[in-house]
Design a protein that fits this description.
Pfam families: GIPC1_GH1, GIPC1_GH2, PDZ
Largest sheet: 7 strands, mixed
Number of strands: 12
Structural class: alpha+beta
Family: Belongs to the GIPC family.
Helix content: 10-25%
Protein name: PDZ domain-containing protein
Strand content: 15-25%
InterPro entries: GH2_GIPC, GIPC1-3_GH1, GIPC1/2/3, PDZ, PDZ_sf
Number of helices: 7
Length: 328
Amino acid sequence: MPLGLRKKKNKSRESSNLVENEEVGGHAGVGKSAVNGGGLPPPPASLRPKLVFHTQLAHGSPTGRIEGFTNVKELYSKIAEAFNLSPDEILFCTLNTHKIDMEKLLGGQIGLEDFIFAHIKGLKKEVEVYKAEEALGLTITDNGAGFAFIKRIKEGSVVDGVKVICVGDHIECINGKNIVGMRHYEVARMLKELPKDQSFTIKLVEPMKAFEMLEPRSRGGGGKTSGDGKIGTGRETLRLRSKGPATVEEMPTEFEEKAVKKVDDLLESYMGIRDTELAATMVEVGRDKKNPDEFAMALDEALGDFAFPDEFVFDVWGAIGDAKQGRF
């Protein structure tokens, strides 16, 4: 079916059952990310991977040990149990660093040697912002468990001029509307649709910081990090899925890493979000497709809750093809 003739998504379907059908994004999260695992119930505890990970609270804590989880929500529950917290207190996790480093967000894969740092809720703040331009300069991601937060602030943008707004802040409320439970693309759309030349109010929750962590705010994703953003130091990773069991897989190939990075850049350009796990799922879906129409239909089947513009689908198909040919 040609791209332009694809069946349009039913709006009510697009807005229902989004959170419970998806995992990290995020850090990000994806809808139905396990193409071959959709619809399967979580496996019993006895069949889950017997892998033990070490974890700390990012602002400082003793080291905890967690195991027996198969998706991000279960991971958060295990961390919360280890530190006697409510899972709702956890905003997001980073791998191998306690810093609010958006290049190290925990997504759908964890290296078997990775150390998990959990960032929990800190100070609340309410800010009034004057929308002087159509674009605010924000990139949104989410933790796969109902919390959208700021992953990037564009230098020189409207929000860059509001110094109290920082990378890592959870967006809790926009103009009095509670957005907890919304996916990142819904929040990005809400912000984009706010009228120009008017003020709006945004309520934020920043991650708790230890005293020694207080430093000038980061715009996120600006420079290269050690390891060039690769996950973990071992050869295998634990792949978390929203449906079906977690699986131990080989580290991504060079083709996969390049393709995922390019698709993630396209997600930010077209939709105002970054979501490496969603990007990875799209690369997986397109790996063996013969043409963009076949790829578009496979995306509809695998990620039915997302409404992607045709131009975006063409560009993603091109990015996957370029990676296959080693053109970037």
